[in-house]
Amino acid sequence: MSNDKLVVEACIREERVAQRQLYEQFAGKLYAVSLRYMKSRDEAQDVLQDAFIKIFKNLHSFRFDCPLEAWLKRIVINTALKAIQKRGQMPTIDIADYHGELDKSPENLGLENLKMETLLELINQLPEGCRAVFNLYAIEGFKHQEIAEMLNITEGTSKSQFSRARMLLIEKIEKENIRLAKAN
Q1: pLDDT digits 0-9 by tens, 16-34
Q2: Burial of 65 (0-12, 13-18, 19+ CB in 10 A)
């Protein structure tokens, strides 16, 4: 029997040692996921706390048909999205306002000059709707149809939000690279 299965079964029996073990094993990774969606560390911490409450409450429904970490991550993402939606309707971009994709390939974005934490800061500066779609599509690997269902938007809106997020990131990366070049 796998260690995850033993820990999950002990958590279902409400064994505090196992609950602490599960928390300590995954809290760091799940906090990083939460931080990608929320504007501040405090909001990310609140989402993580809410997610762990849901995790412990619903652990009995986990069937081991996917890795435990993937299941936990999905709960954190859903909790973050609900927190964003609770603050008000997630802003959307009208397709008519978007004038097409920039012709830039990923290898020409200047990413080689950026540290990962700088890139995450730039992603965090995106408008909420763009940031959520960008994270779900580019980082989490969801398809636009899945994102549309999760966020209660159309598939076209998901695609336009991703394109807009990508365009804004390119602009921010170019500015950051100019700043870094001037500093050197």
Answers
A1: 999 999 999 999 999 999 9
A2: exposed
How far apart are the C-alpha atoms of 71 and 65, rounded to whole Å?
A: 9
d(CA 123, CA 137): 13
Calpha distance 50→83 (Å, rounded): 10
Cβ atoms of 77 and 86 within 8 Å: the answer is no
Angle at 168 between CA 167 and CA 171, to 5 degrees: 90
pTM: 0.69
**Pairs from 66-74 (Cβ < 8 Å, separation ≥ 24):** 67/4, 68/4, 68/8, 69/26, 69/29, 72/26, 72/30, 73/29, 73/30, 73/33, 73/140
